[in-house]
C-alpha cells in the first residue's frame, strides 16, 4: 500500500505589514503526515521556482524594487516518493525608495490617532489590539520611520494612556498626550482634560518625556465658542469668527482655565495645538511651556521657496515668543493639488486622481521648509487615517485590500496595511544633530 502524500504547509510572520528587503523572513514548516505516522519527511524550499534549501524551516531576505514586489515561495514535503506541495505569494516592500535627506528639526514626529468620534458622525476608531498598537508605535513610528516624537490623540483617556505606556518602551524623546473631545462643551472639555492630566501624572513621574497638550483647535472642537451644531459647521464659520472679539476672549478664558485646572494634577510640560486662525491669542501671557500650531500649506501662501511667504511669516509669529515651537499637524492627501488645500485636502474635486507621488512631493516641501524655518518639532498628520476613499487619506499607511482569490481561498489577508510613497519620503528625512 502506497503511503499518503504529506500535507505540506508553512507560515511566516506578516500579520500587519509587508516585510521589507532588509527584513529576515522566517518561514516555519507546518507540514504533517496525513496518517499521523511518525516518519521523517524530506523538505525542499523554492523561491521564484529556484530551489534554495532542504531544511525543515527556512529564513531569508527577499529583494524588492517596488512596493508589494511579489515572490513565490513553495515548500515540497516528501515521504518516500509521495510529495505534497504548497505555494504562497509573499509581498515584499523596499527598505528605501528615496535618497536620505537631512532633517534639522530636533523632534521628528507623527500624529497617532487612538480613536476620535466627531460630532458629525465620523469616527476614526479602528478598534485595534494592544499588539497592533505596539507594532504601529514602536516598530513603525519609532524604529522604521526614525521618529523621536509622537502626538497621541484620542477622546478615550484610557486609550491615550495605553498608547503612551507603549510609547515609553521605545526611544522616543517627546510623547505628547493630546485629548480631542469633539463636540464637548467647554466645561466638559475641562473636566475630561483634568481627568487625563491625573492619569498622565504617574507616567510623567516615570519619564519627563511625557507632555500634555491641553486642547486642539478648541474654537471648532468645543460646542460653545463658534456657532454650529457640529465641527464642520463650526469650521465653516472660521473666516468670520476668527476676528470676533467675544470668541477670542472665550478661547483665551478656556485656555487659562485648562492650564490652571491641570496644573495641580500634572507636573510636566503643557502645550496647545492651535488652529492656524487662532494665532491672535496672547501667547506670552499664557503659561504654556510649548507653543503648538496645526500649520498647513495653502495655495494662497505663494511659493514654497519664498522666505517671505505667509507660511514662513506665520512660523515667525510663534517663534518670536521665545518658547519651543512645534508644528503639531501638517500633511496632505494623495492627489495632485491637495497640498494647496491644506487641512481641507479631503475636499477633493470630482475629477481628482489618486497620486501618491504628489503626496510624497508635498511631504518633502514641508520638511524642507521646516528645516529652513528652524522650528523645534513637527508631527505629520497622520500615521493611519481610516477612510473608505483613499483620496481623503492623509496617512502614511493605507489599508491593504485583499485580492478576491486570497480572501475567498484563505479567509484572511497577510497584511493589514501597506506603505505608500509618502511613507518613504517621510522616512528618507533623517534627523541630524
In short, what is this structure?
The chain is α/β, with parallel strands linked by helices and 433 residues long. Helix content is 28%, strand content 24%.
Structure description:
It is built from eleven helices and 19 strands. With 433 residues, the protein is of the alpha/beta class. It folds into two domains: 10-92, Immunoglobulin-like (Sandwich); 101-431, Glycosidases (TIM Barrel). The strands form five sheets. The protein has an eight-stranded parallel β-barrel with strand order 9-10-11-12-13-14-15-16, surrounded by five helices. Strands 4-3-6-7 form a four-stranded antiparallel β-sheet, with no helix packed on it. A three-stranded antiparallel β-sheet has the order 1-2-5, with no helix packed on it. Helix 1 packs across helix 2 (157-167) and helix 9 runs parallel beside helix 11. 40% of the residues are buried.
